[in-house]
Amino acid sequence: MSPLTLYKFWEIKTIPLILEIEKYAILFLRIHMENQTLTTTPIVPTQEPQVAGASSNNWVKIVSFVVLVLCLMAGSVFIGIQIGKNQSINISPKIPINNDSNIPTTNTIPTTTQNNPSPTPDLTYSWQTYSNKLFSVSVPAKMAYDSLHSTDNSMHLTEKNTTGTTMRNAMDITIGFWQNPRGFTSCDSDESCYQIVLKSVTAGSDGKFETTQAEIVGVSRKGLLSWAVGKTVAPDTNVVYQFPISKNGNYFEFNFQIGNANLQEAQTNFTEIKQILSTFKFIK
């Protein structure tokens, strides 16, 4: 039986019953009092010894009965109050307590803020651009255009100091276009042009080389880094970067010679060489 049903039963059944008991107790008390006061034809009673305390015993019974009734009433009221309290507690909405052990765990992926790399500044923006009838190229301000050794199909640029003399680690650039190069009758692909340069480098008894890559006219091209054997750490080593490509069946070569530098210094300069190659454009 639910607390609400029990409370309703107490409210409907118990209270009227207590009131009924109280009514009969009062009636009984009233009749008893009347019997004590009413007198009838006197009857000479047989002389019997009076029991002491008989009248007081009747009063004790009456008082005990009244006290019992009052206790029942008080107990009923107390029970009713307690049931009412419990009922109000049961009616109150229960807030569920989350138990972490019963809640399925979710793997929380920490959000990471990706720092987009800053765009690499275009160092070639302020470079000087030189052109002829066939191509154009941009170079740093330290490079000087050699008009004496440049033609409509080739270009020569050298690195000079303020006095006009060649510096240590100075770079010498030659970009040339040749027909029937170096004894070969054709250069109809980048690979065949590369083989021409490779045979030329390996023809020397002291030649040493390695393959490298750089982007020319938007395409990654194969090239060669070559230097003299036994002079990789000497201050007077001449290191050469060569990138041959095919142009209309002819040989086209980018030649970067770094004089008076060791191999490590020349490899450091390769970053700048690739930037120069990235500015190259054919005009027609």
Any chance you could write out the topology, listing elements then pairs?
Blueprint: H1 3-37, H2 54-91, E1 128-131, E2 135-139, E3 143-145, E4 155-159, E5 171-178, H3 190-202, E6 207-216, E7 219-228, E8 239-247, E9 250-258, H4 263-268, H5 270-278, E10 281-282
Antiparallel strand pairs: 1-2, 2-10, 3-4, 4-5, 5-9, 6-7, 7-8, 8-9
Task: Characterise the protein shown here.
The chain is α+β, with helices and mostly antiparallel strands. It has 2 domains: 3-37 and 59-90, no CATH class; 127-282, Mog1/PsbP, alpha/beta/alpha sandwich (Protein Transport Mog1p, Chain A, 3-Layer(aba) Sandwich), CATH 3.40.1000. It is built from 5 helices and 10 strands; from the N terminus they run ααβββββαββββααβ.
**CATH topology descriptor of the largest domain:** Protein Transport Mog1p, Chain A
Instruction: Record the strand order, biggest sheet.
Output: 3-4-5-9-8-7-6
What share of the residues does DSSP label as strand, in percent? Answer: 15-25%
Structural domain count: 2
Rounded radius of gyration (Å)? 60 Å
Global shape: rod-shaped
> What is the number of E strands?
10
Helicity range of the residues?
25-40%
Low-confidence stretches: none
SSE ordering: HHEEEEEHEEEEHHE
CATH architecture of the largest domain: 3-Layer(aba) Sandwich
User: Which sheet architecture does the biggest sheet show?
Assistant: 7 strands, antiparallel
Distance between the termini: 102 Å
Q: Tell me the structural class.
A: alpha+beta
CATH class of the largest domain: Alpha Beta
Structure annotation, total helices: 5
Mean pLDDT: 74
The name of the CATH superfamily of the largest domain reads Mog1/PsbP, alpha/beta/alpha sandwich
